[in-house]
Amino acid sequence: MELEKFSYDNKIVKYFTIASIVFGVVAMLAGLTAAIQLFYPAFNFDLQYTTFGRVRPLHTNAVIFAFVGNAMFAGVYYSMQRLLKTRMFNDLLSWIHFWGWQLIILAAAITLPMGFTTSKEYAELEWPIDIAITLIWVIFGINMIGTIIKRRERHMYVAIWFYIATFVTVAVLHVVNSMEIPVTLFKSYSWYAGVQDALVQWWYGHNAVAFFLTTPFLGIMYYYLPKAANRPVYSYRLSIIHFWSLIFIYIWAGPHHLLYTSLPDWAQSLGVVFSIMLIAPSWGGMLNGLLTLRGAWDRVREDPVLKFMVVAVTAYGMATFEGPMLSLKNVSAIAHYTDWIVAHVHVGGLGWNGFLIFGMFYWLVPKMWKTELFSRNLANTHFWLGTLGIIFYALPLYIAGITQASMWKQFDAEGFLVYKNFLETVVQILPMYMLRAVGGSLYLIGVFIMIYNLIKTAGIGSFVSDEEAEAPALEKKEITGGHWHSVLERKPVIFTALSLVAILIGGIIEMVPTFLIKSNVPTIASVKPYTPLELFGRDIYIREGCNNCHSQMIRPFRSETERYGEYSKAGEFVYDHPFLWGSKRTGPDLAREGVGKLKKSDSWHFYHMLDPAQVSEGSIMPPYPWLFEQSIDQGLTASKINALRTVGVPYPDGYEESANNDLQAQAKTITDNLAAEDIEISGDAEIIALIAYLQRLGKDITVKD
């Protein structure tokens, strides 16, 4: 049979690898900065661009899309060409993808610290960047599907299945969750409100973890682990069961992030059921990876690549067991809003994604530079530093999480809360936050050792930009028979369509009833839209990332209703674009901040934002002095009102013409209250708008005192 000569494109893999490493360091430095700020608030350097509320989304986006994303593309571009025995479909598309993705990352790195955010976790980027992400993702998809279609290998190996599922699912997730109405170039409001917005966001948020941080890396595991171990994948049949069950079940599990919230009970229950079912396919994948090493375990002692990959797959197994356990309602009641969740996420992020990426890079770079790894000892040192880093990161946060939950829920013999002041719980866990920063530092030092090792490896080698290869052309005749799945693998377009159907079913069944059946979100007549001044205050709250530390969702537990007031109702949030329920309580819940026993004076909020530690001794919240110097732009009032009316908020027709009159009247009331306590400040200062919003919280329904 005549062989066709062609070449693999290593240059694009090299560039994605370099980008991943560079942005990985930036992402981890941002994470370390945020970690230090939690016990040393002054580490924001008195700048509004580096507060925890702005650095935290910068960190998560940089890790997910810059570090992990670029590494994913490096792994996909290298493995796909070799599995399909062809060069990528189009070199120009590869480079448009690369540079487009880096520009998106740069745009995120600029806009997030500036406070341009939608506030939706892992989807904080504003609408122009969302459009750019869509376009670049489509280019990646065209390049990938085109490569599959022009392949010389009839059989589509398991890694390719996971790459296909990643492409179609991330496209659906991103487009649906990013539906928003623009106000300005850097400001938009979510198309969805309240309960629906929360459901869509966590359908996206959970499955961003599933289909950006998991499925492509399972594909990478299925290629690089057998290559590094020089062993075939343990079981083809297990990989089939693993793939189809995983992509079908995963998409249903999002509601487990919203247990005991105002989400309808049936949706919560669906999320729990499918989360528990997830253990089976997840562990099927883990076992398929670990059993691939049968006969090669003796090499794990010596080979740093295998060391990293074994711990990565083990961390995947741990995280995918813990995730379903956390989705049980009785466990979620303890763990949710605590640092337990942060520990869980980082076992997956640092262990599964980070270690698999490091193992892949240690394997890839010598291959592309045609040499041996410069130093196994340095790679092993990196491995142990990274492992210690994960332990020092996760264990203190597990302790912190259990401590938080225990203190929040503790009652004395007379039935009163033992720790009434939220700050009492914060002070107790500060040592754990310090240890977490130590763990992050160890992990980062390991990364710097890897960078040195890889640079030296490249220095002693010679990079092969276009790697020569040859393979027979794909036969044109249709081959029938064989295993049913191998027949399906010969039809990539049908395979892609079936993957799309598999991931659409769960999302449709969960979301459509929530949107169309009104009883899922019972309305409350007393709930009214935000006033113009409150709207500006809410947007400032979003800009500063306050919902990274404060929740606005009181669960129906006695410990929470005693501490915060009446539990939250679905109908309270019908005008919340976006929802602000939060996912972590570094500070107290604010859902009833403006009413009942939690209500504070305007001057308290004024001084609290000016210097939190002076008002609340021991507070780890930073000061916000710029709120007293910056003014709201009343020229945007009409645009905000019109945009929200478009998505269903019932502002009267023409109200935008007189809205500023109401804004100024409400601002005057607050400034008069402050003046009575000898505080002079302009009515258009941002702090006035923020006070108006905080004083509004909880006022729409009757609250128990």
From TrEMBL:
Cofactor binding mode and count: Binds 2 heme groups per subunit, denoted as high- and low-spin.
Q: Where are the bilayer-spanning segments? A: 12-40, 60-80, 92-115, 127-149, 156-176, 202-224, 236-253, 273-293, 305-321, 341-365, 377-399, 433-455, 493-516
Q: In which pathway does it act?
A: Energy metabolism; oxidative phosphorylation
Query: Which keywords does this chain's UniProt record carry?
Result: Cell membrane, Copper, Electron transport, Heme, Iron, Membrane, Metal-binding, Respiratory chain, Translocase, Transmembrane, Transmembrane helix, Transport
Q: Does the keyword DNA-binding belong to this entry?
A: no
Q: Which InterPro entries does this chain map to?
A: Cyt_c-like_dom, Cyt_c-like_dom_sf, Cyt_c_oxase-like_su1_dom, Cyt_c_oxase-like_su1_sf, Cyt_C_Oxase_1, Cyt_c_Oxase_su1_BS, Cyt_c_oxidase_cbb3_su1, Cyt_c_oxidase_monohaem-su/FixO
Q: Which family does it belong to?
A: Belongs to the heme-copper respiratory oxidase family.
* Protein's name in the database: cytochrome-c oxidase
Q: Which organism is it from?
A: Reichenbachiella faecimaris
